[in-house]
Amino acid sequence: xxxxxxxxxxxxxxxxxxxxxxxxxxxxxxxxxxxxxxxxxxxxxxxxxxxxxxxxxxxxxxxxxxxxxxxxxxxxxxxxxxxxxxxxxxxxxxxxxxxxxxxxxxxxxxxxxxxxxxxxxxxxxxxxxxxxxxxxxxxxxxxxxxxxxxxxxxxx
Amino acid sequence: xxxxxxxxxxxxxxxxxxxxxxxxxxxxxxxxxxxxxxxxxxxxxxxxxxxxxxxxxxxxxxxxxxxxxxxxxxxxxxxxxxxxxxxxxxxxxxxxxxxxxxxxxxxxxxxxxxxxxxxxxxxxxxxxxxxxxxxxxxxxxxxxxxxxxxxxxxxxxxxxxxxxxxxxxxxxxxxxxxxxxxxxxxxxxxxxxxxxxxxxxxxxxxxxxxxxxxxxxxxxxxxxxxxxxxxxxxxxxxxxxxxxxxxxxxxxxxxxxxxxxxxxxxxxxxxxxxxxxxxxxxxxxxxxxxxxxxxxxxxxxxxxxxxxxxxxxxxxxxxxxxxxxxxxxxxxxxxxxxxxxxxxxxxxxxxxxxxxxxxxxxxxxxxxxxxxxxxxxxxxxxxxxxxxxxxxxxxxxxxxxxxxxxxxxxxxxxxxxxxxxxxxxxxxxxxxxxxxxxxxxxxxxxxxxxxxxxxxxxxxxxxxxxxxxxxxxxxxxxxxxxxxxxxxxxxxxxxxxxxxxxxxxxxxxxxxxxxxxxxxxxxxxxxxxxx
Lengths: 156, 531
Description:
The structure holds two protein chains of two kinds.
Chain A: E1 2-5, E2 13-18, H1 25-48, H2 54-76, E3 79-84, E4 88-95, E5 98-105, E6 110-114, E7 124-129, E8 132-136, H3 142-155
Helix pairs in contact in A: 1-2
Chain B: E1 2-7, H1 19-24, H2 29-57, H3 68-103, H4 111-133, H5 154-157, H6 161-189, H7 202-233, H8 247-281, H9 288-303, H10 317-345, H11 354-377, H12 379-385, H13 389-419, H14 425-451, H15 466-495
């Protein structure tokens, strides 16, 4: 876990959770376009030779590649910010659908690590109070999730 | 205020499961890499067994063990098992194990797809083996006597075993494409912060190019074999001259895939060498940027010279000239790669552990295979060599050192990392020497056999070729049996041995040496910062 010190107040803390990504959306689109264009050129060449049955295979492949890139980019675009100040704990979660903010009174916040639906599913990190709970860090691995839970508990 | 940044990905494989389910449902890149490698080793022995029968048959002139159709079926199966079953999965195994470790990623980008792309392989291998076995049963039809090239019209007339083979090729293609897409997405989007493309380890570069090649050429092969299937069962005439089709069209479709396939097999091994040679020469790789450029040039030119496999079909003079010049041009970037490897070794503090022995052997023997490739690229010469044993010698000198020895180098280089134990260096060196000597005794005489006029894919031969064939078969037995030693070394290393350090080799550099040996079930859960 990388820790970045940007202030000195022990009363205020912030945790940024985000998956790593090395290309921007535009760069990924460009990479996809290059592959799709190359495949289109190859397909056109063989169609002119009479091998039109290449079309469904190249088409399907471009589709799968596009879906794979899209899924990975959506996943990598997630970002969660947990801010703890004197009074409140605010969780903001950004995804492709937008950003939502939830604020809980600091004194009442509970942090829970709940078992997954089976031993094959990861535990879930739940944060909330007064019957209102949200899941955070769903893209973290188990060790990170456990570490985040203990850090959040220590910070409250 | 304190800000804590936690970076990572993938929530679906946090536990370290045990038992059969661990392997069946695994989405962990290390487990899937191990599965790929074990699968490849199994196929290596199956493909090797068919080669042993081929060489036993050719030990003496006349028909001793197998009839002509079965002989050609063995030739077909040997090629397909080795290419699609052994070499490609072994390279994919190395990629799965090493790419996330090398780029500081916690796993492959699409772990579930990774699981799928592996588990398609055993199904494909079963279909492939069935295509060999089916003709032995009543009503099973004729043997696949086409060779791995599956040229029509012969492949249209073969029995139902060809249908099994066509579906096996489809499954193998799906597996390769899914693996390639996963590798491309991983390498493009999951590199550690600060690791630009031009800072990426060479093994990752070679796999990025390989994956691009795969997704560009495999659909063409899929289209080609589907057209073959249509001609066989649905009354079309894509490749039937009597119905207005053209059998040569299949050759274009096949070799548009088949020639880049050579680079698909070679490039991952070139990537391995780019790590092994600097490690044991204790010098950085000479000319990183030129290596990347050369590799891109090889891949690009390699995509557009496929018809040098078809000089004898009667192309126009302009076409054969283009394909000849293009093919010879490839020797320039390949030569540059070899030059870079030699320059890396130059004045280095070299030691010769087994991976380095393989690396030096590759530089020598692959260059030799490349030289006979230039001979075959020349149209008038190729007209004489075409379909002779010279071609068999050539492509084995390219693919054994260029692809398989590179994979062996990679296995010995990374085995301490994977298992946490150092392998038995003495036994590994014995394996290297028996392997290399056996290989050369097997294939070097085949150059002379080809030049003297012995055709390939024929079960019998003229008695004047006996001596070289006896020599070649003796070499093949040494070569084949030496792989049992490889199996023993791998099992011995897995079971125990001297504890390997995290950085198992003194001169090794890269992120993969920063994690434990063996690495934890989850590594790089937080991406490292590359400067």
